[in-house]
Amino acid sequence: MNLVIVDYKAGNVQSVMFALERLGINATLSCDFETIKSADKVIFPGVGEASSAMTQLKSRNLDKLLPTLEQPFFGVCLGMQLLCQHSEEGNTDLLGIIPLPVKRIETDLKVPHMGWNQLENLQSPLFVGIKEQDFVYYVHSYYVPMSEYTIAQTSYPEPFSAALHYKNFYAAQFHPEKSGPAGSQILKNFLAL
Amino acid sequence: MLTKRIIPCLDIKDGRTVKGIQFENIRDAGDPVELAKWYAEQGADELVFLDITATNEERKTFAELVRDIARHIDIPFTVGGGISSVADVEVLLMAGADKVSINSSAIRNPELVRELADRFGSQCVTVAIDTKYTEVSGWKVYTRAGTIETEWATIAWAKKVVELGAGEILLTSMNNDGTKAGFALDITKAVSEAVSVPVIASGGAGNMQHFADAFNSAHADAALAASLFHFRELGIPELKRFLKLQGVDIRI
What we know:
The structure holds two protein chains of two kinds.
Chain A: E1 3-6, H1 13-22, E2 28-30, H2 33-37, E3 41-44, H3 50-59, H4 62-65, E4 73-76, H5 78-81, E5 86-87, E6 92-93, E7 101-104, E8 113-118, E9 135-140, E10 142-143, E11 150-155, E12 159-166, E13 169-172, H6 180-192
Chain B: E1 5-13, E2 16-21, E3 24-30, H1 32-42, E4 47-51, H2 54-57, H3 63-72, E5 77-80, H4 86-94, E6 99-102, H5 104-108, H6 111-120, E7 125-134, E8 138-143, E9 148-153, H7 154-164, E10 168-173, H8 185-194, E11 199-202, H9 208-216, E12 222-225, H10 227-230, H11 236-245
Parallel strand pairs in B: 1-4, 1-12, 4-5, 5-6, 6-7, 7-10, 10-11, 11-12
Antiparallel strand pairs in B: 1-2, 2-3, 7-8, 8-9
Helix pairs in contact in B: 1-3, 7-8
Pfam families (chain A): GATase (PF00117)
Protein name (chain A): Imidazole glycerol phosphate synthase subunit HisH
Keywords (chain A): Amino-acid biosynthesis, Cytoplasm, Glutamine amidotransferase, Histidine biosynthesis, Hydrolase, Lyase
């Protein structure tokens, strides 16, 4: 399988590469238009800040390319948020693929939402072998609200979208590459889609 | 629900794990990658790797080791020690670290916290605060591996770094570190209540009840220990079962 990880210097791509390596998969790291377009599957990692990530994407013309992709696509953490319409983080216009907003976590609890929290209401082949209440690792200060595209939820304290599915685009707010055996299973499930 | 984190800390010198007793009398506790894998399997929620000689001896950080760790473990980890620039952090994050911890360099140049948060996001910027209580000064912040007292009161500094963009605080009480007499509950609670970001309690863990106290009394979001885990005096599965019985939200 020709698996490409989108390289835009804004994400922690190395961790995703290593997680795939542990599954015996060699992925190609690329920001090249043709390489990404011809991939069988695409993973779009990301940590960091939305507006600087968008700047990096635009400088590589990836803001034009990514919405046109038709193969199975997996956005992780900031990579999930970037697929949406608009973020309150830096008042940033995002890629606009999934018609949902990204909002700041407003709570008396600690922000960032950092640590291991539970998945609930799992509704996708992405979660084959994953049980309700299984733990995954989160680090984020912004979130995507519950929606018709939500395929798993987590609460902090209110429920939010732990994962999304829209057309060929899958996305997770948590970090499968850092979520132990459960995370590896979710990556495997994406590869099997 | 979000669970409290148990974090083994691996102090690194020359690519090996060490743990200082009150920052002195260093003992060798093994190979960092092997220990890290073992901790991940045991149920550690995160790991911290501190290059303890980096600040004192101006050593370059340990990107190669970080890469090796990232290659082998599937839980998050933070690296610290001698980080003084955006470029240092970029190297470590690109090597696979999830967060960086900065300490003395934040004291020297508080704007570094803001630069890191702007460039990489607050979620990967942990500010480590070494604090010590004295009758004369109260709780103050210490720098350069705990050798120099700064002008900063601990609470004021914690608030300052969060305002600058820190996403987490790693609070080590030097009075308690190495004593196994328990975490410094008063200052941990005070810092946790003063800031909006997660606080890791560090220094003094000696038994399971100390962890329960850090979470239930001091409201820490995470608790860190080193020698207690490295020398197998306390197992993480056993600790987590105990905490769960104590009503702490914990991942098992």
